[in-house]
From TrEMBL:
Originating species: Streptomyces violaceusniger (strain Tu 4113)
SUPFAM superfamilies: Metallo-dependent hydrolases
UniProt name for this protein: Adenine deaminase
EC code: 3.5.4.2
Sorted UniProt keywords: Hydrolase, Metal-binding, Nucleotide metabolism, Zinc
Length: 328
């Protein structure tokens, strides 16, 4: 059975760092990891919440130091994504997680874009790059990061907001989002993962986001659901992530069917696939099996991903045709 063609819209490139590549890069760069073996590292992949995961995520990415490292990481993701049906990927990166430890933003962007530039030919995948601000860092740091990225804005499609949500509402980043919009960038933000519906309202009304990342907690607020449906604001849902970070207890309890029933423009994505047990095709298979989704629903989810993508209309139409042509 060929995988269903999809666009992946919620994917942290640092979250694709698999244990084998992490150890290889640690060796190559002379970085000491606090784990002796891959088995010892893998034992740390049981998370109690978002912060618990973020601690490992930031610790492991210290092996990423050179332009080649970022290109290798990105190529490894693209190869796996292609095997799982991804035709278009909109990829987050966290510049502050690298600049804070002395890796220049130019190094990060050059490495990632080297792989992305070759991706249509090498993997048959089109891409966009989304620069995220760490919401647990200051608003000033986000502004500095945006200015440091200015020479590269032609390579950046959108800005996003990630890291520890609770206590760091979208309103904190009003200014940098205004600058991003002035510069012609699209805007997205993580909201309503661990944080309350009020954070989703702020992302919409204060940041003016074009998509909401996660957003699963919107279901707690009827008026918010009505707003998201009326505006057709896409939500990039990450089912396996939600289970691993204990946003939901079990995949069988995931609100994805309720979100679809409410008329929300929902997509399925992998978030940090090296940490959460699967890439986008694995997420599709898991929700199909746990939630009993039929072929029509899977096709709707795939169609939604291309509707929600930052694509020109010709390319979008071509991808939608691929979805209609897919047979299990
Ligand atoms: C993230 Cl799952 C998740 N949530 C918020 N920030 C993140 N950064 C990487 N993965
Ligand atoms: Zn995420």
């Amino acid at each position: 059975m060929p995988p269903i063609p999809t666009a992946e819209l919620h994917l942290h490139i640092e979250g694709t760092l698999e244990p084998d590549l992490a150890f290889a890069l640690a060796e190559r760069n002379g970085v000491e990891l606090p784990y002796a073996t891959q088995e010892e590292l893998k034992a740390a992949y049981s998370f109690s919440d978002l912060q618990d995961f973020l601690n490992l995520y930031y610790a492991l990415m210290t092996v990423l130091r050179t332009e080649d490292d970022f290109a290798d990481l990105t190529n490894a993701y693209l190869a796996r994504a292609r095997a799982q049906g991804v035709r278009h990927a909109e990829i987050f990166f966290d510049p502050q997680a690298h600049t804070a430890r002395g890796v220049e933003i130019d190094t990060v962007i050059r490495g990632i874009t080297r792989a992305l530039d070759a991706a249509p030919e090498t993997y048959g995948i089109t891409t966009r790059l989304i620069m995220c601000f760490l919401r647990d860092e200051s608003a000033e740091s986000a502004l500095e990061t945006f200015e440091a990225a200015r020479p590269h804005l032609d390579r950046i499609a959108a800005v996003g907001l990630d890291s520890a949500e609770v206590g760091n509402p979208p309103s904190k980043f009003r200014e940098v989002y205004a600058l991003a919009r002035e510069a012609g960038l699209k805007c997205v933000a993580h909201a309503g993962e661990e944080g309350p519906p009020a954070y989703v309202w702020e992302a919409l009304d204060i940041l003016g986001v074009d998509r909401v990342d996660h957003g699963v907690r919107c279901l707690e607020d009827e008026a918010l659901v009505a707003r998201l449906v009326a505006d057709r604001t896409p939500l990039t849902v990450c089912p396996l992530s939600n289970v691993r970070l204990r946003v939901v207890d079990r995949l069988e309890d995931h609100p994805l069917p309720a979100m679809l029933d409410a008329g929300l423009l929902v997509t399925v994505n992998s978030d940090d696939p090296a940490y959460f047990g699967g890439y986008v095709g694995d997420n599709f298979t898991a929700v199909r099996d746990a939630l009993g989704l039929d072929e029509t629903t899977l096709r709707t989810l795939a169609r939604n991903s291309f509707e929600a993508a930052f694509l020109d209309e010709g390319t979008r139409a071509a991808y939608l045709k691929e979805v209609e042509g897919w047979t299990r």
